[in-house]
Design a protein that fits this description.
By secondary structure, this protein is an alpha/beta fold. The chain has 3 domains: about 190 residues, 2-Layer Sandwich (Nucleotidyltransferase, domain 5); about 90 residues, DNA polymerase, domain 1 (Orthogonal Bundle), CATH 1.10.150.80; about 60 residues. It contains 15 helices and 6 strands. The chain has a 6-stranded mixed beta sheet with strand order 1-4-3-2-5-6, with helices on both faces. Helix 3 links the parallel strand 5 and strand 6. Helix 12 packs across helix 14 and helix 12 crosses helix 15. The protein is flat, with a radius of gyration of 24 Å.
């Protein structure tokens, strides 16, 4: 490796992108720092097209990333990443790219006989007998200058991705799961996957645990979560610094913004409490018919028992069809499915999941 592989200018990026486009393969990865900011701070983007042809793009130099954005959006070039969604979201915010023709090696591994969520280091060793050193795991990728060792370490994460893709495709062909994998990979072409976080939807991901919120309590929680998201983005802070999820649930129960727990200075904290007090007041003033419904559905015992049995059956079926069970469905999806097998919005009711699992699960475990 020589430091010529560290791209610091637009002409260097343009030349590398032309070489990648000619190969038809773009291996991608990112290195970032995420400690206190609303979004991660991107340090470098690694790109390669197989073998020793690889580069680290120094995004801290501030040059126009348009050639990279065009390459990521080019459907004639396959983009290979491991655990692709997070990296693609970072790249979208960096250069505006809307990816086409993505191959996620972590996703593919779940259709190739490996556990879902397997890390790149372990997958490379098990699939290709390649060992990667992990010597720079604590690097601050936004600090300059970068050393040759840091660049070499980063490029290892893209150097072997083309060969790994070929091995995983060979294995899915052998297991008869390639068509299912391709259906899943197609979801990466959806621009909505890279859309900004919707402040009005954030409350749905907050677990209520033992809290019992009435309609206006849910409206307060929704309003607080939206206010937190907007403030975090405005101030470029981690959202949890403006109140953990548990704190927002507590405020939705008490309706008292002064009891907020946060990690801010006195002045900032006062501003947050003021904004949250306004959010609480606005939600409490809503007519009952405009209050949201609880997104966390409660099921009768018959449905929960059927879901337990269906999950046991799913683990056996997953082994038979050579797909990681968690790739097929989680407990929430299975429970919702056995409760209503006609709900076409459930992943088990459409596509390869219906073909491989859903139809039989509906017949065996669906609750009338």
């Amino acid at each position: 490796m020589n430091m010529k592989e560290l791209i610091r200018t637009l002409p260097e990026l343009t030349a590398a992108c032309e070489q990648v486009r000619a190969s038809g393969i773009l291996a991608l990865d990112t290195e970032f720092v995420w400690r206190s900011t609303y979004r991660p701070r991107l340090g470098i983007v690694q790109m390669g097209c197989g073998g020793e042809a690889s580069w680290a793009v120094d995004v801290m130099q501030g040059f126009d990333p348009a050639p990279l954005a065009e390459l990521i959006a080019d459907p004639s070039v396959v983009k290979i990443l491991h655990d692709a969604r997070q990296d693609l979201q970072h790249l979208h915010h960096y250069c505006g790219a809307l990816p086409q023709n993505v191959f996620d090696t972590q996703l593919a591994a779940a259709f190739a006989g490996f556990p879902q969520g397997i890390g790149l280091q372990k997958l490379l060793f098990e699939a290709l007998d390649v060992g990667l050193p992990k010597t720079e795991t604590c690097t601050d990728w936004t600090q300059r200058p970068l050393s040759e060792a840091q660049v070499r370490y980063a490029l290892d994460d893209v150097r072997y991705l083309p060969a790994l893709r070929e091995e995983l495709l060979k294995r899915t062909d052998g297991l008869g799961t390639r068509a299912w994998l391709e259906e899943e990979l197609g979801k990466y072409d959806d621009p909505e996957l890279y859309a900004d976080y919707d402040p009005e939807e954030g409350w749905k991901k907050i677990r209520l645990r033992r809290a019992r919120l009435d309609a206006h309590g849910l409206a307060v929680l929704k309003s607080l979560a939206a206010a937190r998201e907007e403030l975090a983005k405005e101030w470029d802070l981690l959202r949890n610094w403006l109140g953990e999820d548990e704190s927002l649930v507590f405020l939705a129960e008490t309706r008292d913004a002064q009891r907020l727990r946060h990690r801010l200075s006195h002045g900032q904290g006062a501003l947050v409490k003021s904004r949250y007090a306004a959010a609480i007041a606005a939600a409490e003033a809503l007519p009952a018919e405009e209050c949201p419904e609880n997104p966390h559905r409660r099921y009768i015992s018959e449905v929960l028992d059927a879901a337990d049995a269906a999950l046991d059956w799913l683990n056996v079926r997953a082994e038979e069809i050579h797909v990681a069970p968690t790739m097929i469905a989680n407990r929430a999806t299975v429970t919702a499915f056995v409760d209503d097998v006609n709900d076409e919005s459930n992943p088990l009711a459409t596509g390869w999941r219906w073909e491989a699992v859903g139809a039989d699960m509906a017949e065996k475990f669906g609750v009338e």
